[in-house]
Design a protein that fits this description.
Daunorubicin/doxorubicin resistance ABC transporter ATP-binding protein DrrA; four-stranded antiparallel beta sheet; Rossmann fold; ATP binding; membrane; single chain; 27% strand; 2 domains; Alpha-Beta Plaits; cell membrane; alpha/beta; transport; 330 residues; 12 helices
């Protein structure tokens, strides 16, 4: 059994990668606990796919080091390839072959006998609702079916570590849910899953821990609740009269943390507030004393979308402006 560092299945330290004049990774660090689903979030071009390619031995880093399942991604690359699975953004299956034949070939490449490979292919096709299309050429499959086939191809031999690079991009809600179920089942049986995704709901629902990367660096990491807690709750007040916005802003500035955000089109004033620091009764009383009539007043928990925008863009639509302290807290 491989030796893992501090119970981590994946450890990357100071990874750098350049492609010509473009710097994809800038000293990136990340640590993924064994047996967890780890979400990797970031805007396009943040370095997510480059990181996955390095961890899966497809690309060498220019500097830094990384270990996966106790093996160095450069020095032990040949051995490591037998201990990982990878489903990338684009299907790796052959369009001209049937679904069953594709899986048998993947099994043979993983050194399974033809009999065992065929049995494993049949098992996966049945368990992932593809048995009815097993003997059809892949070019007749829908997008969701192709993505499911591509995913189960990486599971012919269940790996200790599985990399999923945006596996549900472009899928309909039903197909996305089926892949989510597969990811959950893998984690329950001990496989470590590193998942990159553009869907924040996907990361929120699946990931035990999340790292947000931007410009090739890790800017935040933690559980979804921990990340949301860094920006606190949000107090929203929709005023009856646009002329009351300045007064409402003054009130919310006293109640909250930081400068209120104003959406004049919606007549909404919003501010971040610490947990349990403000109640709706307190806010309503303060607005009433200032002569402000609120059509709507609510305390809202932050979403992962707001965390993502704060960390990678400096603001979140419909929320207060980011505080410079946010990045320092995580």
């Amino acid at each position: 059994m491989s030796t893992r560092l501090n119970g981590a299945a994946i450890v990357a330290e100071g990874l750098w990668k350049r492609f010509g004049t473009t710097v994809a990774l800038r000293g990136l660090d990340v640590e993924v606990p064994s047996g967890s689903v780890f979400g990797l979030l970031g805007p396009n071009g943040a370095g997510k796919t480059t990181l996955v390619r390095i961890l899966s031995t497809l690309t060498r880093p220019d500097a830094g080091r990384a270990r996966v399942d106790g093996l160095d991604v450069v020095k032990d690359a040949a051995r490591l390839r037998y201990r990982i699975g990878l489903a990338g953004q684009y299907a790796a299956v052959d369009d001209t072959l049937t679904g069953r034949d594709n899986l048998v070939i993947f099994g043979r490449l993983s050194h399974l006998s033809r009999k065992v490979a065929r049995a494993r292919a049949n098992e996966l096709l049945e368990s992932h609702a593809l048995a009815h299309a097993a003997d059809r050429p892949v070019h007749t499959y829908s997008g969701g079916m192709r993505r499911r086939l591509d995913l189960i191809a990486s599971l012919i031999v269940v790996p200790p570590v599985l990399f999923l690079d945006e596996p549900t991009t472009g899928l309909d809600p039903r197909s996305r849910t089926q892949i989510w179920d597969t990811v959950r089942e893998l984690a329950m049986t001990g496989t470590t899953v590193l998942l990159t995704t553009q869907y924040l709901e996907e990361a929120d629902r699946l990931a035990d821990r999340i790292a947000v990367i931007d410009m090739g660096r890790t800017v935040a990491s933690g559980t979804p609740p921990e990340l949301k807690a860094t920006i606190g709750n949000r107090l929203d007040a929709v005023v009856a009269d646009e002329a009351a916005i300045p007064a409402a802003s003054e009130v919310l500035a006293r109640l909250g943390d930081g400068e209120p955000h104003v959406d004049r089109a919606e007549r909404r004033v919003s501010v971040s507030v610490a947990d349990d620091a403000v109640t709706l009764t307190t806010a309503m009383y303060a607005l009433d004393r200032a002569g402000v009539t609120a059509e709507d007043l609510a305390l809202r928990r932050p979403t992962l979308d707001e965390v993502f925008f704060r960390l990678t863009d400096g603001s979140a639509p419909g929320s207060p402006s980011a505080s410079p302290a946010v990045k320092d807290m995580v």
